[in-house]
Structures are given as structure tokens and as C-alpha cells.
Amino acid sequence: MSDVDPILLEIVEGTLSSVEREVETAIARTARSPMIRDAHDFRAGIHDRRLRKLTGRSYSALVQPIARDFPLATMRPGDVFFHNDVYLSEGGIGHLPDLCVTVPVFHGGEVVAFVQAFGHHDDIGGAVPGSMPSHARSAFEEGLMVPPIKLWDQGVPNEAALRIMTRNSRMPDSLAGDLDAECSACLMGARRLGELFDRYGRAAVETCFDAIIDKTTETFRRELLAKIPDGTYVWEDYAEHDGVDPPRLHAQRITLTVDNAAAVPLVIDFTGTSPQAKGPINHAGDYADGVFLKKWLAPILRNLADTPERAAELDVNEGVVPLIEMRFPEKGTLLTPVFPAPTNARTFVILRLLGVLSGVLAKATNGRMPADQETIRYTGVYGDDDRGPYLMREVLGGGSGGRYYADGEDTIHVVPDSRNIPAEFAEARWPFLVERLGLAADSGGPGEHRGGLGYDKHIRMLRDAHYMSIADRSILSCWGVNGGRAGSPFRVDIDGAEMDGLVDDQPVRAGQVIRVRTTGGGGWGDPFDRDPSAVAADVRDGKVTRTGARDDYGVVLTGDEVDAAATAELRARLRAARGPAPFFDRGPGYPRLSGGRPGADVD
Q1: Count of alpha carbons within 13 angstroms of residue 382, beta-carbon side
Q2: What pLDDT is stored for residue 3 in this prediction?
Q3: Could you state, in chain order, the average pLDDT of each consecutive group of 10 residues for the chain (603 residues)?
């Protein structure tokens, strides 16, 4: 790294970031579906010829399946590769609606890098609109599976393949428009990246690539991993249902072994994870040595940075891979499913794993990690209007966990830069009215630092339709840490009738109101240690009700002001009644579920 020109290194890093953003901007401005264009549920990534991810702003899929099936020497300028097959993606694709395009970058007639984009598309066939059947028992019910193919050959689209894909989609125009946008954007990105090689030469640019990755490896080892004491730590958490069996606990378990003197300082062992589910909550993660999961989980480590500002500066690229060893159980578990096990709701597993790693690190660092969060779920409606069939599907976020230095964030999403669908656009396009879109009061877990709030959204249907939901945490809550309390779970009701978190065909009549209340993050620290003036401010802002202020925080308000004497008396009485605050608070959902309870080695 000492041989790298530092000025050229800055130029290369800046160019990679610029190209990635330019690709994503082009897709957002030219795609057709609301899921891609408006909700921004897609990502771009840049990889070198050794298949290493160079950019670190977001996660991306993998190039490994393309290189496996198409030798680099056979690739030509203008080629575009495509795949969405979960089991042939080397772990990079989680469910069939995630379509991935990959474009090679050329210099001197040879492949020198790759530009890739993948995102969640409206529909790729299968049993239900949206290609996410909540009761699927097989991947064959979930949609069209496409192994790696050459979608464009030297600039010429494969019209037969495109016709097959659009024929299998209920939204063929949106699918065709989105694919065209993604292919064109990645081809543009490949040209931009090729200009970098033309300007500075392959040897110099590739030396910078090595330096970028090495810098990440060294930074994570020195600044983050050194803060974790050597030892072995265990934690597990649970998905609550799989859409087929009755609700029960489906465990995801991590045993973390830390040895900062070892060449590979972190070992993540998933032994103890529950058997493969009958329904679609499985995730095929045990491919390519778990390289996708390494990069998926590594952002959690950034919470160990000295400051949140420093954490925001740290990229997660291929440099994290040498620091982590993954150990998977035998085939046939939630993380090692056997084809054709269904996977369309695999978010229940991979999102829970983020929390499991955060929890095990909280145990290792005496609670310095954030509390739990669940910041993704799919909700929507589908039916027919005057223009024909329609599908409205939205990826609503939730509240993040409270942190040792601050409250959690409200209504965030695990996908960077994603967003809810604007009410004005939705009402113009689909037959319903958005009667409310706001924060769900009291949804954030009480704590010295409160959990972030979820959404509260009300939709009044103007025509008969069907409601759909792919959501976990409708029974179990996001746990609090270090004395903080759990947040509120996901809730949906239609005119007061509570819906299951996993449903894809619930009838909803014209005039009925769908009320969606998404999860709140867990709280951090004892809520009775929260500054009473901060609780009063939350009440004024509508984030906490007056009842919540009294019952959850022991704060008594007279008008808008804190009654200090009454607050001190109430807090003392509540502390005595409650007893010592637990390190983890998982919420009240477990009595409703079977399938095991946390063991002594976990809690």
C-alpha cells in the first residue's frame, strides 16, 4: 500500500463512488415500476476482475455465478449477463423478484472489472401477484427461475429470453422497462469505468483496487475488532412463523469466537439454527464460503467505531471478507436449505441475523451495541381498476434501535436511499386514498435512549381488492438492550380485524380502511434514567403519549411541564415493583409461541 500514489488512490476511490451513484441515478430516472423508480429498492455495485466488491456504500449481489458459468476470456464488450436463480447465485440472490444484471468492463481487450445492479421487481410470475406467495412450499411456486444467461450479446438484446421473462410476469411492461433501464445504466457505468483504465493504465488502477481493499481490512481490524474482547459468545433470536406451520420459534443462532491475534479474528458459527422451514423463510447462505453473508453482516461492526461520524466513513467492501470465517451447519437448516425449498420471505432470516450479531456483540462489549430493529416489510394491495390489473406493493421501514449515545431513528429502511411511496403519487395511480401517513406513537421501545418509531399508515380502498403482507415481528418485538425495553410489534388491521403478518390474498372491500403500524426499535438503557425533559419533548412531538410517559418512563406531566416531585416518587415506586432491569428485554410474545425458549447459554 505504501507504493500507491495517494493522489491517484483518491481519484480511483472517487471515480468508483461516482460511477456507482451515476448508475443508480440512471436507473432511478429511467425505470418504470414504482418499486424501482419510486421506492428505490435496488442497488449497484462495482467489482474487480477477481470478483471482489470495491465499493462500500451498500451491499450488492455477487459476480461469482457469472464467472462460474461464463469464463472471462469468452466475454465481449456489450455483453450483459442476467440471473435471479437463488440456488445458482452463490448466495447473492435471496428470492426470485431480485433480478440481477452484470456488465463486464474491458481494457486492452480483456475483462478488468464488473458493474452490477440488482433490485426487487414487481412480478416475475409464480402463484400470486408480486411473486412472494406467503404459503409457498416450493421454489417452483415463487416464479420464473433464470440461471446465469447472456441477456445481451455484444450489444444485441436476447429478445427470446426477454420475451420469456415478460410473458411470465403479470406486469410485463414494468419488467421490460426496468430491465432496459438496468442494462443501459450498467453499460454506461462500464464505459465510465473503462475510461479510468484508459487514463491511468491497468497496472496503476488495479494497484489502487488492492489498496482500497487492504485499507478496509486493516481499518476494521485496528479500529473495530480490537474493541471486542477475546472469547466465545452466544446469542440467538427467532422468526415467528413461516406461512405454512402454525406460528412457532424458528431459531437463528450465532456462536461468535473472537481471537484478535489470529489471522482470521472472527469465527461466526451458525450451529443451532433451526431446521429448514416448510414455508418461504429460508435463505440459501452457505455458498461461496458465505461471502455474501460476510458482507451483509459486517456493517453491524461499524457500531463499534469511536464516534457515529467515524462509523459513517467506513466502507464495507471485500476487505471485510478475510477477517471472518463462516461455519454453517449441515444441509437442511434455515441457512442451508435444500433445493427447491422456498425462499421468498428470506428477509425473516437475514434481517434477524443482523440483530443476532448485534446481540452477541452487545454481550461481548457490555451493551455498547444498539438495540434491535426490524426495518423492512412488504405490504400492498392488488386488484383491477379501469386501466386493468394493478399491483401496489410498498417496502415500509420501521424504527431503529436506541444507541448508547442517542435515540433510534424513526421510519428507516435497511436499503439505503429507499423510501415510502408518496401519497400523492399513490392516490393518482391506484384506487385508494391515503388517509394518514405519520409516526406510530409509543412504538419505540422505552429506554434511556428511546427506540425509533415505526409508520402509522391508513389506506381507504375505493374498489374491492386483495391485501398482501410479508412481515415478521408481528408477535415478537424488537428487543431492548442494557435495561431498555422492547419496541412495539408490526400490526395491520382491516376495519379493526387484525391480520396475520404473512398473507397474500386477504379480501378487502371498497370503503374499508387498512391500518398499517410498523415496528418500533428496542430501547437502550433503563427508561427510568431518561431525562424527564426529553420525555416531555417526545409528548409534545407526538412520539410518546401522556399515558406512555407515565407508564413507561414514570414521568408525570402537568400541562406540558414535568412535575419533578411526582416524577421522582412514581419512578421510585415503579423501580421497586419492577425489580432489576434485564440486560435484554424480548417483549411479551413468547407465551404465544412454541418451538423452544432461550437457553441459559443464550440469555
Answers
A1: 22
A2: 83
A3: 86 96 95 90 95 87 97 98 98 96 98 96 95 96 98 97 97 96 98 97 98 97 97 94 92 97 98 97 96 96 96 94 97 98 95 95 95 89 93 92 97 82 93 97 98 97 96 93 96 94 93 97 97 98 97 96 96 93 87 60 61
User: From the CB of residue 191, how many other CB atoms can be counted at a distance below 10 Å?
Assistant: 15
Helical spans, DSSP H, in 117-265: 159-167, 172-200, 202-219
Distance CA 243, CA 343 (A): 11
Report the distance separating Cα 322 and Cα 184, nearest Å. 33
Phi, psi (rounded to 5 degrees) for 169: -100, 140
Between helix 6-30 and helix 172-200 the angle, nearest 10°, is 160
Helix segments in 290-337, DSSP class H? 291-297, 308-313
Residue environment code for 52-90, b if the CB has 16+ CB neighbours within 10 A, otherwise e: bbbbbbbbbbbbbbbbeebeeeebebebbbbbbbbbbbb
- CA 234/CA 216 separation, integer angstroms: 26
Its pTM stands at 0.94
Angle at 470 between CA 464 and CA 475, to 5 degrees: 110
**Please, are residues 336 and 285 in contact by the beta-carbon 8 Å criterion?**
yes
Phi/psi of residue 575, each to 5°?
A: -60, -45
For 94, residues 6+ apart whose C-beta sits below 8 A from its C-beta are 86, 283, 284, 343, 346, 347, 350
Provide the pLDDT for residue 419.
81
